[in-house]
Amino acid sequence: MRRNIRIVGMGMYLPKRKVTSAEVDAIIGTKEGWSESKTGVKIRYYVDGETSSFMGAEAAKEAVKDAGLTFCDIDCIISGSGTVQQAIPSTASLIQEQLGLQHSGIPCFDVNSTCLSWVTALDMISYAIEAGRYKNIVLVSSEISSVGLNWGQNESSILFGDGAVAMVISKSASGTAGIISSHMETYSAGAHLSEIRGGGTMIHPRGYNEETKEDFLFDMDGPAIFKLSLKLLPDFVEKVFQGTNLSLDDVSMIVPHQASGPAMNLIRRKLGISEDRFMKIIENYGNMISASIPLAFYEGIRQGRIKRGDTVFLLGTSAGLSIGGVLLEY
Amino acid sequence: MRRNIRIVGMGMYLPKRKVTSAEVDAIIGTKEGWSESKTGVKIRYYVDGETSSFMGAEAAKEAVKDAGLTFCDIDCIISGSGTVQQAIPSTASLIQEQLGLQHSGIPCFDVNSTCLSWVTALDMISYAIEAGRYKNIVLVSSEISSVGLNWGQNESSILFGDGAVAMVISKSASGTAGIISSHMETYSAGAHLSEIRGGGTMIHPRGYNEETKEDFLFDMDGPAIFKLSLKLLPDFVEKVFQGTNLSLDDVSMIVPHQASGPAMNLIRRKLGISEDRFMKIIENYGNMISASIPLAFYEGIRQGRIKRGDTVFLLGTSAGLSIGGVLLEY
């Protein structure tokens, strides 16, 4: 079912601390150039005191301003992020507090499907917007990966960057903008291919010590994820287009998760997409977990590569292992 | 907007370890009877090796069986829980794995608004079910609070219990069962009245030590939460009924969050609800975070106090501070 929603404003926040791949090479002790050649990332940002809620609030303020609205017009704040600021309460509540809206009553909650959190939240909330439950929601992804990287695991630690993206999403006039189709699949056969085993109820932080410390850091088997994703993606993409009159050829711009440069290139070729229809921004930001897709979307618009009326395809994989796709008319 | 959904199956799992209030009194070193008099809790359950995904899967299996379905009929698994098993991936993915459905592709994601997680997920997913996106979803709340209690903070530590509840939710024939109205509000003025400051990106587990250890444990100012909730609830309840032809008097059963026995009694009186229309089960389970409301709902049905066609009002507060209400025809 088509959902008549429109992205009416966008904002982002990048941490103050800019980190080159040469700096990352120095951290892990490889020769200069290794990180960039492995990942395609030149620059990423790491927080330097900024919290998730601070970054999320900054992005949200910019998005609401961009929409020509004020927070009086906003009736829901959702954090669609793969990381949280604290175990309790929701990051969305902390963003509301940071925005100075602590007496507003604006409902706040989090949606989590790791790198797909923002896309899953967009997909789900679109039904509520279409039905009139909410008029203007702020959907934020604010991610801090830098605190949880395992610098002993070179292949994963060099990939990530921090930052936040927010969009204001409203109901659109019928047929002008909207989600045309969307689909999600989870294959937990890959649940342990990228994980942080600790930090929840299974391995409580009180169990943190020299022996267990890696349980609290990000652990990824990149090649295995890539292999599983590549196997699943072609059929998945077909399912997203099922029931529409469209095919991948009709899409103006594919906005993929920015997992890793080389993997993105291979997936692009596997799906038969030319470079000009594939938003790849990992070079300047790294993998920003669930903020990657909305940031690439935002960049596409800023660079004039995505215009109103264009058919855009948000597509990503995440820990879980999940695949998510949202086909929308911008 | 009414959403035509029906709860078609229910299941639950309680940990093997049953803990009396006398045992809790011994842990905190008070005289026998103190915990029960403070909380109204006689018995709660603590995990003894069980994980969130194990408990969630057991509850889900029972719910799917109760619905007369198999997992081939299930097209979405959502964890609406205030706690997670691991930092990455989502608990829903881990439940899928535990169910042996790792190659099924059934989409899995988490929704979090602490004690309201299950209710918020029900509220949001109802729009997607109504729109035909999903036919039969499993909505699980699986909570382990026992690992994160601060035994130096008597008032909060004695309240909680572990366990899981799952329901299968399907589309109903128009007008037979459904959500009549729902509403949510968040007042982050109360964001730090109940929290776990650590475990996320702000205070990473690597910072765990003797000095910081309380940051990784549940911290609650019960009287302040109660005061704020009591102030907000009457107006909130009015808003849930706005636009319906119903009032609180038309509700067959109020199913509240099981926050604490004495607080529940005071709120019940403030709202002018008689005991027979108020599902209070905290005595036998403690506060089970977001599993409390679905468990009280389940108990109401098992005890014959809630019947098909009854108007049921799910109502709770959560860390955030959020208030949520779902008015439904069962």
Tell me what the structure shows.
Two copies of one chain form a homodimer. The first copy, chain A, is an alpha/beta fold and 330 residues long. The first copy, chain A, folds into two domains: 5-175, Thiolase/Chalcone synthase (Peroxisomal Thiolase, Chain A, domain 1, 3-Layer(aba) Sandwich); 179-329, Thiolase/Chalcone synthase (Peroxisomal Thiolase, Chain A, domain 1, 3-Layer(aba) Sandwich). Helices cover 30% and strands 23% of the residues of chain A. Chain A has ten helices and 13 strands. In chain A, strands 1-7-6-4-5 form a five-stranded mixed sheet, sandwiched between helices. The first copy, chain A, has a four-stranded mixed sheet with strand order 8-13-12-11, with helices on both faces. The first copy, chain A, is globular, with a radius of gyration of 19 Å. The model of chain A has no long low-confidence stretch (mean pLDDT 96). Chains A and B meet through helix 4, strand 5, helix 5, strand 8 and strand 9 of A and helix 4, strand 5, helix 5, strand 8 and strand 9 of B. Strand 5 of chain A pairs antiparallel with strand 5 of chain B, so a sheet runs across the interface.
